[in-house]
Design goal:
Elements: E1 4-8, H1 12-23, E2 27-32, H2 35-44, E3 48-51, H3 57-63, E4 70-73, H4 78-91, E5 95-99, E6 126-128, H5 130-142, E7 149-153, E8 158-164, E9 184-190, E10 196-197, E11 210-216, H6 221-227, E12 236-240, H7 244-256, E13 262-267, H8 270-279, E14 284-288, H9 294-299, E15 307-310, H10 315-328, E16 333-336, H11 343-348, E17 353-355, H12 357-367, E18 374-380, E19 385-391, E20 412-419, E21 422-424, E22 437-442, H13 447-453
Parallel strand pairs: 1-2, 1-4, 2-3, 4-5, 5-6, 12-13, 12-15, 13-14, 15-16, 16-17
Antiparallel strand pairs: 7-8, 8-11, 9-10, 9-11, 18-19, 19-22, 20-21, 20-22
Helix pairs in contact: 1-12, 5-7, 5-12
Domain RCK C-terminal: 148-229, 375-456
Protein name: Trk system potassium uptake protein TrkA
InterPro entries: K_uptake_TrkA, NAD(P)-bd_dom_sf, RCK_C, RCK_C_sf, RCK_N, Trk_Ktr_HKT_K-transport
Amino acid sequence: MGLQAIVVGAGKLGFEVARRLSDAGHDVVVVDRDAEALAQAADRLDVMTLVGHGSSPSVLRKAGVASAQLLIAATDSDELNIVTCMTAKTLGEPFCVARIRNPEYSSPAGAAQPGRLDLARLGIDRVVRPEDLAAKEIIRMLRTPSAAEVEYFAGDRAAVVSFAVDEHAPAAGRSVTELGLTHTVVAAVIREAGTVEIPSGSTVIHPGDRIYFMGRAGNFQEARRIVGREEHPMRSLVIVGGSPLGYEVAQFLGKMRRTGLSIRIIERDRERCRELAEQLPPAVMVLAGDAARPDLLEDEHVAQSDACILTTGDDHRNLLVGMMLKGMGVRYCISELSREEYLPLAHRAGIDACVVPRLVTASFILQLTQRRNVRNLALVEEGKAEILELEAESGCPAEGRPIGDLRLPPSAVVGIVVREGEVLIPRGATRIQAGDQVLLFLRPEGVDAVQHLFRQG
């Protein structure tokens, strides 16, 4: 049985959250003052809509807040989101999630600081800051340079990474069995057309494919080798753009104090440069200039950096600078995008990885609705596939059975088993034990069947 959820705000984030909640089988009501935005949501999603002010008690009552288990305040106003959650808590007991952009508001629950609001006492159970979540996603990617996507599971013991296959890579033209992998598992292949394929041993890899590998965190050397991606030490990094996301990334990197790592941030607005220089750690060098000018990139030797992160706040500018940098030979380039429609264009431009803060935030919120034995969840290719971390419950149908006998749906593959802290690469004869954390790659149509196998009763 699904949750009763209320999403306040029918903007890009609210729409994405409502879509994913509805697709997961939850009952969703979307509230907004903009009747046109609600009409689009009603036309494209299986949700109820209600025109009105999200912080209004009468509107929330009509939305069913008294019986709702979840409320997400996702408007563009921090203050409205805070008041909406406060009001909801006086009318019912939903788990309240608020999008808060201003870091001065968003002290962790139970850790209120002088001069800051204690949001937990105001009825907010979880704060989400898109820039903070996207910055952490970028930092995770930097831990595995040249990867298009990185996700960590089982307390960061296991990971799922994706790499694009170079034209002359050893994997090109070979079947999965012929790859001879021993430390990693090929969990999925994304073809150039964007289709998601759960591979068998006979599946042939082609140049331009993206392969998802599962394995022990930090142990993807063989995966790099077969896709033609050499590993280089990270000594210099450039952030292009002093946007809120660029600032968050620079803060994270500056505080890490990694020995020998040069960090520079380039911003064309001189006033913003002064703010950045005052607020960022001393380890971060702030440069004033327009990174869209090739002469600046050449003068500052940006192309010689080991990684460039594009966070100008403008998709077109990020793509332009990214194309120039890849053309100049930069090794690894990550771009922020606000519109996922530009992802194929970014890949064609040679940009190695992209982060869409709205999608990262929606995925994080969706994790709050996880069912009983779901430990973690990540969406792949805008929801075309999922990575599920499940716990095998005592007495579940899978307990004691070899993986090869589980009769998994064709759209699912077991990639990792974590047992008592040890990461195992499973084979067909590997038997599932109660308490195992099982990492699966699957398409949405296989989720219910897979969860049944690992759940008691």
